Every structure is written in C-alpha cells, then in structure tokens.
Amino acid sequence: MGVDRRKAAVFGGAFALRLLLLVLFPSLPDLLTGRVEVSTPVTSFKRLQEGLFLYTRNVSPYDGGVFHQAPLLLPIFSLLPSSPGFPFPTVVLYSLIDLINANALITIAESGWAVSGRSYSAIRKHIRWDGVTIAAWFLFNPFTIATCLGRSTAVFTSIGILYALSSAVTGKTFNSMLALGFASYLSIYPALLYIPLMLLCYDQRAQTAKTYPSTTVFALQHLAIFVLSIAGLLGISALLIGDFRSFVSATYGFQLLVPDLTPNVGLWWYFFIEIFDSFREFFLGVFWLHLASYMGGLTIRLRRQPLFVLSSLLGIFAVFKPYPSISDASLYFALLPLYRHLFPLMRYTFFAVSALLYATLLGPAFYHLWIYAGSGNANFFYAITLVWSLGLSILLADTIFAALRDEWEYDNPEVRGKDVKQV
Amino acid sequence: MATPAALPPLPFNPSRVRSYILRLPLFTRLVLLAIIVFWLLELQTVWSVKQWGSLIPEEINIGTMYRLNTYPFIHFGFFHAFLNLLALTPLLERFEAEHGTLTAVALFFGPLSTFPAGAYILIERFVLHRNTEVFGASVWVFLLLGSEAIRTFKSNPYFSLGPYKIPTWTSPLFACGLVSIFVQNASLLGHLCAIFVGYLFGLGYLKVFVPPEKVLRWIEGKLNLLGRLPHYVSVDQKTFGRYGVLPTTTAGGERATPMSYLGSSQRLAAIRKLRSNPHFLFVHLPHILSFLCIVAGVVWLLLLPLNDYSRQTYISENALLPGQVHAYFSGSEQHIFRGYKKELEAILERQTPSEQDSRNDEFTPAVSDKVQSILRAAGLKVATQNYEYTSSGITHQGQNVYAIIQAPRGDATEAIVLVAAWRTADDELNLNGVSLALTLAGYFKRWSLWSKDIIFVFPPDSKSGTQAWIDAYHDMQPAFVQPLPLKSGALQGGLVIEYPFDHRFESLHILYDGVNGQLPNLDLFNTAVSIAGGQMGIGSNLQEMWDHNDSYEMRLQTILRGMVKQGFGYATGAHSSFMPYHIDAITLQPKGDGWQDEMALGRTIEGLCRSLNNLLEHLHQSFFFYLLMQTNRFVSIGTYLPSAMLIAGNFTIMAIALWLRTGYYIGSEQTAVKLPTVSAGETNKQVAVSTEKSGANTAQQPAVKTDSNSIIERQLALPLTLVVGLHLLGLIPLYIFNNINHQYYPTATYASIAINAILPIALAASLTRGLTTTPREQSQQSLLIKSFSLLVLGLFLSTLATLNFSLSFMIGLLCTPLSFVNRIDPRTASRPLRAVLAVAGLVLLNVLSPPVVLLGACRYVGVDVETVLTQAAFGWDVWGMWTQVVVWCVWWPAWVTGCALLGFSLF
User: What top-level branch of life does the organism fall under (chain B) (predicted)?
Assistant: First the structure.
C-alpha cells in the first residue's frame, strides 16, 4: 500500500518545523535549555554536557555533583559531535525521537485499546480520532517542540514509556516490560506503572489467546522480565562507571531524596525550601507515598480500562513528581487525544485550558520579574506553578470523571442520557 | 423532554443579588443613598462634611443638635462607607420589612440615633473627659445586631461550646471586640453604646417611642403613601404579609424570615425566570459585565490621584540616610570646574573651521583625548570603547570614555556609575555636565570614605553610548560593540548628569522611566528628591510638570504622562539603558532660571553618591512598580493594578461567555423555536431538576436530542487555525517595520492602513465562500473565533499588566470595542441593513487600527511619523524594546479578527 500520505506529511512537517526553528532562531535551543520549565536537574541537557565532558576525559561523571542522569546516556551522546559547535546532529536526534514517539502513539491509537478492552467497550467509541491526528497533536504541541529543542533527556523516558504501551497493546509483552525497564532505569518513577501495564498485557493476552494464562504466573513472569531488564541495565552501567555506589547515590538517591531545590513547575521545591530540616525526611516519605498511592486506587477502580489508568497516572506524575517539567505534561497531552470519546462528557475543558494558557504565559513573566528584573520574588513564580498544577489537576479529574461516567452508563444502560449529580 | 438551557449552578448567583437589590424597601434605599451622597460630598475639599456633621462631644449645643442625627450618614473614606453599607443593608432591610417604613423613619430619626449618641456624649464628655469625634453607620449596625441578638436569645438562649454555655446575647459584644481589634480607629465606646440601646430596644423598653399603629395608619391612608411611593412598606404589609405569602408553619411563635434568600417563592421564581431566559444570561449579561469592567477600570484609574488611594513617599531603606552628611564640594572646586570648562571650550573652538559661524560641537577624538588626559591626571584608571549600531539604514557610532575610582575601603565588588553624556537626551551640548563630572572625578578621588568603586562614563550621546557600555559591562554586547578593557564590580546605582546651559538654574527635573516601562527602585527617586529639597533647598519636578500645584488635575496629568512614557517603553535618557540590567538609575536635569549654580548640583550629586555608598545591599526595600503623581506622592502596584486587570478581564469574561453560548445557548435557541407549547410551569420544573450534568449526554443521542438540551459539538479547527494564524501573521509587519530603511516608513504606514482596510473583508469573503455550511454553524464559528481571539487578548494583556501596566492599559482601552463587535445575525437584520451597519462599524474600527492610531497620535503631538518609527526601530535594535511586538502580535491580530467578524455580515 506504500507509505501513508498523511502520515508522511505530518512527520515530514514536524521534522521540518523543528529544523526550521533551529535555522531561524539559532539561539533558541540554548535559551530553552536554560529555562527551568524545560530543564530540571535530572533532565537538563547542560548538566549532561558537563557529565559528558568529565566522561570523555575519563573522570567519573558524577564528580562535582552536577550530573544526575543515567550513565547509559553518556556513550550515546559521546558518539555525537559536540553540541555547541554542531547543534544540528543533536536536534536531528531529538526530532527523530519525537517521530518515534509519534509512531508509537499511532500504534496505540490504531489498536483501539483506548476505546475498548477485554471486558469493557466505551459507549461513544465511534467518536475518535485516527492515529495520524493524534500523532499530529503530539508533534505540533508547543510543549513537545520546546522539550525537543530544549534537548531535555526526559524524552528518553518518554520513549521508554510510549514503547512499553505500544508493545503491550500489540501483544509484545516481553518488549513492553523491557521498555518499561529502560524507562525506570532512566528515571525511577515509571516503575510505578508496572502493575497497570502488566494488567494491560494480561488483558491483551487473554483477549487474543484462547486459553487464559494464570494471573499469578503471568505477573511473576513479567515481574522477572522487568526486574532482570533493570538489573541488566544497571550491570552495564556499573561496567561503564566502575564506582557503583557513587553512581546509584548520584542518580537514584538524587531523584528520591530531592536535594536540589532549583525552581521547576512542580510543587516540591517550594515546599522543601520552606520546611524545617527536622521534618524533611517525614515529608519526603509523605510526598512519595502520596505519589505512589494513586497507582493502587486507580488500578482497582478502573480495572477494566488499564490503558486509561496508565494515561491518568502519567498526568498525575506530571503534577506530583519531584522534578516535573513541561515534557511530562506533553507526554500526558500526547495520550489525552486517545480519549476523544470522553470529550463530550468533560465539563471544565475550557477552564482547564485557560488556566494552563495563563500559567504558560505568566510563568515566564513572573520568573523574569523574580530572577532578572528583581522586582518580584519566589512567591510570584510559585503561585503560577500552583495555577499550572491546578489546571492539570482539573483536566485529570475531569477525564477521570468522564471515564467513570462512561463506565456507569455502560453498566446501567437504562440511565443513558439521564442527568446525574455527583455527590 | 426538553429542558431549556442547562447550566452549571453558580455558587454566587448574580441574579439573586440583583433581585435582592431591586427589592430593597424605601427607607433602606434612602439611607443607603444618603450615605453614598455624603461620601461623595466628602471627596471635595471646600466644605468638610465630617467637620459639619460628625458627633463631636464638645461641639454639641442647642444649635448643633442636628449632629445627633447626621453622624450615622458620614463616613471616612471609601472602605469605611463600603463596609458599613454592606453590613447595614441586610439588617436595616429586615427591620423595615418587619416594622414598616413609617415606623423605621420615626425610630431611626428619633431614638435610635439620638439615644446612642446621647449615651456616648455623656460618657465621653463627663465621665472620661475626652473629645473623640465619632461618625459612621456602624452605630446602627451594632444597634440592630443588639436587638437581633436579644431576639435570638429568646428563642435560642445558649451556644454550647464544649462544657461552656455562652448566652447568645453576647454575640454583638464579641463582634464589637473583634472590630475594635482589627479596625483602626473604631470607637469601642460608641459601639458599646449602640449595642446597649439595641438591647434595650430588643427587650421592648423602647416600645413607647414607636408611634401608635392607629396614627400610622391614619397618616398612610390620608396621604395614600402606599400608592404614591414605590417600595413603600405599609403598616399592614409589615411582618409576613409583604409579598402575599403567609407562613405555612409558625413554630412556637418564632418569626418567619420573609427576606431570607430562599424563603420567598417569588424570589425563586425570579431566579428560575432568569434561568429560563438564557438570552439575557448568555447575550446581555456578558455585555453588561464587560462594559462594567471597562468603566470600573477607567474610574479606578481616575480615582488614583485622590488622597485616599495614594500615599506619601518615604525612604524605606534605612542605610541610605539621605542628606545626613555634610557636602564639602564647594569653594576652590568651582575654579577647577571653570578651568576644565575653558579647556574643553578651547578644543571646540580649535576644531571649528574659521569660516564656520556655529561652533563644531562634535565629540571628536581631540575632545576624547582631553577628557582622558584630565581623568588620568586626576589619578583615575581610564579606558575607551568604540561602538557602532545600524538601524533603519542609519549608523550610530562613537567612542565611550570611562574611568574608575577604585574604592579605598572596598574590594571592587560593587560600584556606582556617574554618567555625563556629551549630548543630552534632547540633543543639546552638555558642556557644564561633562565639566562637572570631571571636577567631581578629581574631587571624589581625594576622599578616602568610598566603599564602592565609582565609575565615570562619558558617552558621546544619550541614546546609544550608555547602552553599548552597559551591554559590554555585562559581556552581552553585539559583535559591532567593543568589549570593555577595564571593569569593576556589580553596579549598585547610576546617576546621569545633564547641564546643557550656562546660566544658573531653579529646580531639578528627575527622569526615571526605563526601557520597556521598567522603573528604578522608588528609594533612589526619593533619595534624590529628599537630598535636593531637604539639604540643598532645590525644588524638584517630574514628567515635565513645571508648575505642579498638587491639585487633582495636575496629579492626574502627571500620572498620565508617566503612563504614556512607560507604555511606549522608550529610553527617556541615558539612565534608561541601565534598567534592564536591574541597575537603578535616574537622570538629573537642572531646569529654569534661578539662583542655584553648578556647585549646588555638584553637592546634590555628592550627597546622592554618599547615600548610595552607604548601601549594604542592592536597592530592594522600596517599590519597583509605582505611579508617581507628585515628587512626594505615589500609588503602588496593589492599588493601581486592578484597573488594567479589569480592562483585561473584560475580554476574558466575554470569551468565557461566548464559549458557553456556543455550547449551551444556541441549542436552547432552537428548542424555543421547536417546542413553543411547553408551559411555563413545566419549564420551571425542568430547570429545577436540570443540573450541571445535563450536558453530558450528547453523542450517543439522536440528533433531535442533541439540539434540545445539551452541549453541541463545537467545530474548533477553523477558529483555532484562524486565530493562531493571524497572530503568526503579525510577525510580518513586525519584521517590516523594524528592518526597512527609514525613508520608507511613511509609505509603509499608509500601505498598512490600506491593507488593514482590505484584509479583514477579504478574509471574511474567502472564509464564507470556502465554507458552505449551515447558517447555524456559521454563527457558531464566528462566535468561537471571537471567543478565542478575546481569550488570547485577555491572556496577553493580563500578563503584560504585570510587566508593563501602562502598555497593557492603553492597548486594552484601544481594544475595548472588540468585545462588543459581532457578526450581525442574518436572521435579525435584512441584507441592506446588515451591509450598512457592517460598513459603518468597519469604518469606526478602522479609525482604531494600529497604524491610524499611530498617525493620529503623531498628528496630535506634532511629530513626524518617520521620526517616531525610526526611533521605534532603533529601540528594537539597540535597547531591546518590545512595544512593537505587543502592537503587531497582540493588538493587531485581535483587531483584524474583530474587523473580519464585522466583515462576515457583508456576505
């Protein structure tokens, strides 16, 4: 059948747009790399450069306490020509990663798992967008473009997660676990996705295969694959770095204990700046527990829609992670159009989108007033990160409400179209 | 079944408030009116209402007994009046509803005012021997609270708080205590007197003062008050019977509450009526709200010059200690100053060809060498910097000379800058200023008390020289500007000296506006004013207000001039370039013809440098956002920001309303046509049960259902593309107006006017031709286009208001018509009428298009368009000014969208 014309146009357009932006505004990537909204201490490209510099000179990249990313990124980037001199190869690499992500999204969309699963099928499933439209929403999303040009290494985590999802819905459960292992290796939090992803794999297997595999065996098998993949990656890293202990404390210790409180779009930094040191450990535990607790609740309540649970969890991570950036939001926004059939049930879209737009504009303005003009202070920027989180939370709550409503109508056919009141 | 216009219930229902206000009874209305009138009267300064009517114990005699009745109407300032109004309205309304208008008049002009006043005077004058004046309606508030508390006590004697039983009648005392703690100047004694009288009234001891019912009825009957006066509460109507609703149950003699919010069925019906009248809710109400926002925004700005809203300036940073040191710059320094001036004049004479009439005042290498040699002779480190800027085909080049005094007591981490440009901001020769700076350089070098380095900069002009220097100081210079060979520490403050004439001066004019509307810390300005005025006896001016008599008009004019400069965002002097680097700087310009000489200016600068030298950290204490209305009066951001936010908010309100309208209202419009037989009662019932969720069930329902009650699918693709596309299209004029040669600017302006006239119509035509959709979809699309465009406009303007208040306010005002411009509905107007209306609207809108406004402003001020645009392009290229971005990427796209919407009506 040849190459799908629309797909080629969207992909080509997205690729050309990224290169065009680089050619028209050569200083744009460096500007974006420096923005706190794009780069966090664990995904910053600048810090990667620093680690790379040390690595290529045979010094441990974690010396100096600047670099906190997984060591496997270093050999990949050491193959590329240095980015200050030759910005093109790096941007081409990042653009290609975006295209691969978009391709995974198309696979997910076309599998139809977003609208119907093993034991459930959405009522409005005829309202949906095709894969190319969803890919276009992802590729032309300004947040995605900013992440790409800002060369945040969060895109590697995104590629792991999206590939885990696309493999799961096409039945390649082994690949799926490997991809999730890769994502978890890069930044710990995707490990929380293991249970819903395993359920998605199980549902997929149960739907296609004639015989149901035993749940326990299936779960243990996949847990083993997942753990082994992480262990393998850690082993390679240990070979690369040598000093295993310092590498673990500089990467995972750093992500878990949140010592760097550089401002970002999340909620942690301000809180941990303000908190007294004696309470720090306690609240660190509370914050992590809070983040992890959504997984259980959502998985149980929305057992029949595991893909939706995964998408919602990604949205929750974008709000409550220790170092969130707009790349996490862009990953959530990439999965949102899969649920086109829920849009008619959503009630606060306009307000959520307006809040996000306001935060997008006011965030940099207030950051400017705080850092550069000196006429504002940290509270200005923090207030805006609260608005941003509020916008995302409204959107999340609204989609979850819509999904529940859809399930309810599926279970109670007699109440379709009736009014209900949420209490 | 059809339910009209399902909408989410509002937590705060404006319609409820409206109906409440519309139903206020007569006496309450009159009291509220009187309070407002007295407050407005108080705004003038000729006749002090407060002095006339407040309750002053010592002033009370037979002739001034009227005070016993007038004091509750008089307030001090807006907030006092507003809060009292808010508290009084429900209480008084309830009282009147219960007792009737006549009784209320009799009591409130009689015992209920005079008794508390009498009690207060007795205690204050004869027991406490003080003379504190009191006024305000709070006396009635507490009195009524007291009487209500007694009533509550009778039915419900105690609150239980754990083991304690607190009698309910004490609640007004708690309220009174809280008020005296939280509100300054609240008279505790006055409130207590009022509560006491309230208790007496509640317990029935004042019943004797109530006129007998017979008399009241007789008066009412004779005068036919019920027929003549609107909102009059009759003697017979009082208590329950006012709206013809009898209480269904009267539990234990308890009083029904006829005026509680949900009590009256008629009230509910009014709300239902509003809900079932979506046309008002979705079409008229947003227009009214938007309009009110705009009016409130403008009125807010006009209120700012009043004393109640502005503040006296004060020095916030204690370390500055302005004017606390003796300035020693005098005496023999004057000879040195004259010597330097003579030397410079001699060079100017020498470089002038003999046949030429006027002197050659260029900053030639000879002058530069002279300046350098003087500085070097004084023992300073000297360096130069060459720069060259090209903008609009004009090249600006020159050489900055600068020198550094290294601080004897510092470590070169901090520095102060003194700038004397060879040419002032008005392009005059600044010979005295440069000579003064040279003299000061030699003088300062001899002092040992400096803890910060002092840098003297001598740029050849005030526009580009300082910019090149400050950029290079922070290593941010473009390629054609040389880096600085010599640097010092972080700059703490900058002073620019201008003295372009030879005679003595009268006052100092202080320039403080920076690029893009950034302002220096208010402390710097205050220090300059206080040193000049307090220590040297030199008056100061700002914003070219030469005879400021501190009247309202003058203050407003000063604010407006400041806002215009801030809004345009251009550099007003050499100091402006410092602001983007967060260095506070001002320009001092001697003005007028008086008896102050250059030595006085020198001493002022010495005092300022000593103050800056005292600083322990960067200026941060005082305000960075302010509007000055006089050298010693300002408004801070918290007070003035709401006016720009209200203007920006009007667009957002309209955008949200339009979004809701496209979803809910268009559907219900169809319903009304389709199902006219639904009886009113049934409709009401449906509204009552319909909740926010009613819109949820669109998709799987058949088409008829979709029409009837719920969210309609919105076609977002075209509106989104159009709005985003137009904003991107704004980059083209932005590029053109910043990059063509200066002689083409007038042509480009006229061309853009012509294009502006055609573009929206062409856009409208192509869109209508290209899309063969139903009329309903068309109207939805046009509403959505407007919604998105206004949303973006509101977004940008509210963000801008935090960065550059004035620009946001001005653009917001110019855009206000866009809130009210619509595609004229083909169903309501015939084709010729539509065409006439649309053309008239387009002509009016074209008058408000960006290039026409520019031309008009240039004509009004009397400057050349070419000059203005050249300056603007220079600002863009050199100063990093972004006013043009706002004009072309925010204002212009919104304007084109508005015109295109009108243009749709033509087709």
Answer: Eukaryota
Q: Given CA atoms A10, A11, A17, A18 in this order, what sign does their dihedral have?
A: positive
Does A411 map to a domain?
no
Task: Specify the residue for token string 């959405």.
Answer: A122
In the residue annotation, B138 being an active-site residue is answered as yes
Q: Which range, of A389-398, B338-347, B773-782, B875-884, averages the lowest pLDDT?
A: B773-782
Q: How confident is the model at residue B246 (pLDDT cuts 50, 70, 90)?
A: very low
CB contact under 8 A, B691 and A354: no
Please indicate, yes or no, if residue A109 is contained in any of the structural domains.
Answer: yes
Which domain does A175 fall in, by range? 5-248+265-345
Catalytic residue among B75, B80, B99, B191: B191
Residue of chain B whose alpha carbon sits nearest to that of A409: B697
List, in order of start, the domains of chain B with CATH numbers. Answer: 26-232 (1.20.1540.10), 335-353+360-631 (3.40.630.10), 641-904 (no CATH)
B8, B659, B691: residue with CB nearest A419: B691
For the record, the structure tokens of B335 come out as: 């000879």
Spatial strand order in the sheet of B633-636:
B311-312, B633-636, B626-630
In this structure, what are the phi and psi dihedrals at residue B310, rounded to the nearest 5 degrees? -110, 170
Chain B residues whose beta carbon lies within 8 Å of the beta carbon of residue A418: 697
The tens digit of pLDDT for each residue in B531-577 reads 999 888 899 999 988 888 889 999 999 999 999 999 999 899 999 99
Question: Of A358, A417, A419, which is closest to B705 when you measure between CB atoms?
Answer: A417
Number of domains in chain A: 1
H or E segment to which residue B386 belongs: strand B381-391
* b/e map B89-113, b = 16+ CB within 10 Å: bbbbbbbbbbbbbbbbbbbbebbbb
Residue A194 domain-assigned (yes or no): yes
Of B115, B96, B100, give the one whose Cα is nearest residue B206: B115
- What pLDDT score does B187 carry? 80
Inter-chain residue contact B652 with A354, CB threshold 8 Å: yes
Q: What is the pLDDT of residues B81-120, one digit of tens each?
A: 888 888 888 888 888 888 888 888 888 888 888 888 888 8
- β-strands B585-596, B505-511: how paired? antiparallel
Q: What pLDDT, in 10s, does the model give residues B380-404? A: 999 999 999 998 888 998 999 999 9
- A378 lies in a domain? no
Q: Evaluate whether B784 touches B870 at the Cβ level (below 8 Å).
A: no
pLDDT value at residue B241: 37
Examine the pLDDT at B418 and tell me if it is beyond 80: yes
Cβ–Cβ contact A127 with B under 8 A: yes
Could you tell me which chain B residue has the CA closest to the CA of A351? B656
Q: Which of B420, B433, B426, B429 is nearest to B359 (CA)?
A: B429
CB spacing of A369 vs B796 below 8 angstroms: no
**Closest-approach residue (CA) in chain B for A364:** B799
In chain B, how long is the greatest CA-to-CA distance?
A: 112
Shortest Cα distance from A378 to chain B (angstroms)? Answer: 14
Question: Residue B268: what pLDDT?
Answer: 62
Residue B675 has what pLDDT?
38
Check CB contact under 8 Å for A420 and B693: yes
